[in-house]
Amino acid sequence: MQEDFVRMGLHGYGYIGRIHVLASQLHIAAGQTAPSINWESAVVRDLGTAAAKQARRVFPFVTDDISALSERNLEAIDIASPNHAHLAPFQLAVEKGWSIYCEKPISHDLSEATEMVEAASQADLVTQVALVYRFHPAVIEARDWLLSGKLGRPLTFRAELLHGGYLNPDRPMSWRLQNAASGGGAVMDLGIHLFDTLHMLLGPVDHLTATTRTFIDSRRGPHGTEPVTVDDWASATLTMRQGTVGTVEVSRVHYGRERDVMDIVCERGVLHIPLERYEGVSVTTLDDGMSVPVSHSPSLQPFSPKYAQSTLLNLHATGLAAFASRIRGASVDIPVPTVDDALAGQAVAHAVMESGRAGGDRVSMDRFLAAHGCLPRIYAR
């Protein structure tokens, strides 16, 4: 008899790791038709930290040694540690044949990420990355509209993730502000979500130009003032292979109301995707009465108002439910974000940063990928 739960280990019990655990409980409480997640083990950086103390309240086994997981009876691992720490748990999962759920990006380094994707592919593992906007009800509905063809050809788009978490210059240094650990700033942290969502809705990027800025170039660290080595803000113009053109703006130094939104203008209507709100797509059409029927896998159904929490938590819950369902062999009728998809989004992020460093030079994605020995499936078609 097939078990109705998945035995999972967690690597990293900081903020995002706790969000993953909380989200998995939400999908159980809301009665989503997906296997539950049994959090069996956790790996923390230091057993003497507050995070380790908290982890002991949730997990039956807590360690600071990744190799100790080898003896645990796991089916999957959730990698929620800092970007530069993903490789070791990823390699262990490949060695053990565990399914992999990983935070984005899968690595701080594009070459390392490419090798990780190849290893997972050769091992034929179930993989998924927390590019959770793919599970937003409005994104799923927007894809239905675009696939129906009723709105005609997509012409332009505008996508924004404008957050203010690092506007305060007194906020201390963290690994997210160091390129060697994170692989990028706002472009990698926020932009990768938008690049992945655009891949899902509009296909691959043909070429791009970008401007990037670091407005707060130093922060207080444990040993005094340290340089910030990533971007705070970026704006990029992307031309897709199918001809659609648009802009992506990301910021971690925004002020006032944060903006998480995407608009796609088509020949016969406009799709408004409110990423910051947990609701469906808003469609304005030239023809009255136009509609598209929506029907998707049970694990993708939106939460009812009685159980819905924040948009972020809801999307993580749906993503984890989809992952658990896929481990048990169920199909999910949207393209879920695998490690290969995450590699594609990360490659665009690196191309944006390259253009920004070069003062806005045009970057061809085909040439960029060839130069880096990287060819995600969406770009191989």
What is the compact description of this entry?
The protein is built from eleven helices and 16 strands.
Plain-language structure description:
The protein has 381 residues and is of the alpha/beta class. It has two domains: 5-131, Rossmann fold; 133-288 and 339-380, Dihydrodipicolinate Reductase, domain 2, CATH 3.30.360.10. Helices cover 33% and strands 23% of the residues. An eight-stranded mixed β-sheet has the order 15-14-13-7-12-11-8-16. Helix 4 (110-123) runs antiparallel to helix 9 (339-357). The model has no long low-confidence stretch (mean pLDDT 95).
How would the blueprint of this fold be written?
Blueprint: E1 5-11, H1 15-29, E2 36-43, H2 50-55, E3 61-63, E4 76-79, H3 87-96, E5 99-102, H4 110-123, E6 127-129, H5 137-148, E7 154-162, H6 179-182, H7 186-202, E8 205-213, E9 218-221, E10 224-227, E11 233-240, E12 245-251, E13 259-266, E14 269-273, E15 282-285, H8 311-327, H9 339-357, E16 363-364, H10 365-371, H11 377-380
Parallel strand pairs: 1-2, 1-4, 2-3, 4-5, 5-6, 7-12
Antiparallel strand pairs: 7-13, 8-11, 8-16, 9-10, 11-12, 13-14, 14-15
